[in-house]
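fyi for ur records
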Amino acid sequence: MITIPTNIPMTAELSEKLVEQISQTYPFARQEKLAVSAFGRPVEALVIGTGPRKVLYGAAFHANEWITAPVLLKFAAQYADAIQNDGMIYDRAARNLATETTIYLIPMVNPDGVDLVTGAIAPGQMAYDRAMALARNYPNIPFPDGWKANLNGVDLNLNFPAGWLMAREIKFRQGYMNPGPRDYVGRAPLDQVETLGLYDYTFRVAPDLVIALHSQGKEIYWQYGDIEVPGAKELGEEFARVSGYRLAEVPYNSSFAGYKDWFIQQFRRPGYTVEVGSGTNPLPLDQMEEIYENVLGIFVRGAEAK
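which gave:
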């Protein structure tokens, strides 16, 4: 089985190498590129399985929530190994699940931001100095640990066309009117290559369900506005049962322009944000194993749900 390091910070380069390693090791896995970031890092998907049902799981939308990337990569490695060796994943025969469902995994939506927070972008480098200059506009936010945005200073989970004008109004009112570490919505929806790449890729895949991993809070969000997706709440309740997390309503000030918001609005299919772990971002790696055990059932139930 391919080992996913859980004792060192994740970086864009390490994520890319692991995706490549898994795709080259297993014949039922493949690597696809969604976009190249403003600073030249790939946003990639790892596709596992051959089934007609399609689900898409994304992680590291926010830079200081990078712990979600190794969580998703560990699932990919464990699942691929179980398929290869006719084993189990959670409580399901992995090989059977792979013939029912194709899983699209995007471990790092925000590779530039992750590299800033995890130290792959070092002080003195142009990208670091650029981010630090933007951070000076928000002196109360710790740098770089408080950084959520990409390196253009745009919060990628506030950049989708689902109530974007409302998100802008809320965030401007809170003081986030310019590029910076967090909560700036951009000049327009999808004005960042990462969000546009994920938007286009989602249309190409047309998944039956999406899950966006964030941290922290041990909560699951399943709604957007007053849109009622048949079965979405019931599946969310199952996610809560297998994970021990709480199915919750999104706080109003955070309920617009996110990826799962746009997916629900556009496709009228189940979309979820899962807030893993607890504490202050970035979460310490000693939470990694507990988080993985919590969300493994969510990954499997999402893939098998009918």
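Residues 131 and 151 are 6 Å apart (CA to CA). thats all i got for now
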